[in-house]
Amino acid sequence: MNEYTKNESFAFNNRIYKGRKKVENMSEIKRSNSKAIVSLIMGVLSLFIPIIGIILGILGLIFASKSKQEMNLTGESGNGLVTAGKVCSIIGIILNVLMILIFMVFFYFVVNTDISTY
């Protein structure tokens, strides 16, 4: 193995490929905003956890708006995460409110029915 092949393989191993774009070192890769990730997690949890999902959905929307502001200032990535977090949070809030309303209507009719066996 001559000197040229050692240097060529070393240079190839140190390159990082992100999609089709070649990135020379890790400092050039944009990091995702941590609040955007939290927003997505809160939004997904709001879909699956009943009643508490309303609170989680609201927190997801708050984190999404805060992360959007931070990303505009710092240039971090995570727009897709923020959008997904907002959508999941809104859907989670709507589903939880509908579930509570349906439960209340069902409970109202069950309690108000006069079942007599005379």
Notes on the protein architecture:
With 118 residues, this protein is mostly helical. It has four helices and two strands, in the order H-E-E-H-H-H. Strands 1-2 form a two-stranded antiparallel ribbon. A hairpin with a 2-residue loop joins strand 1 and strand 2. It is rod-shaped. The termini are far apart. The model is unreliable at 4-12 (pLDDT under 50).
The outline comes out as rod-shaped
Mean pLDDT: 81
Overall radius of gyration: 25 Å
Continuous helix count? 4
- Model regions low in confidence, pLDDT < 50 over at least 5 residues: 4-12
Q: Structural class, from helix and strand content? A: mainly alpha
Question: Could you estimate the helical fraction of the residues in percent?
Answer: over 70%
Number of strands: 2
Distance between the termini: 101 Å
Q: How much beta, percentage-wise?
A: 5-15%
Order of helices and strands: HEEHHH
- Major sheet: arrangement of strands: 1-2
**Major sheet details:** 2 strands, antiparallel
List the helices and strands and how they pair.
Blueprint: H1 3-14, E1 16-18, E2 21-23, H2 34-48, H3 52-74, H4 79-112
Antiparallel strand pairs: 1-2
Helix pairs in contact: 2-3, 2-4, 3-4
Keywords, separated by commas or semicolons:
mainly alpha, 118 residues, 4 helices, 2 strands
Report a brief summary of the structure.
This protein is mostly helical and 118 residues long. Helices cover 71% and strands 5% of the residues.
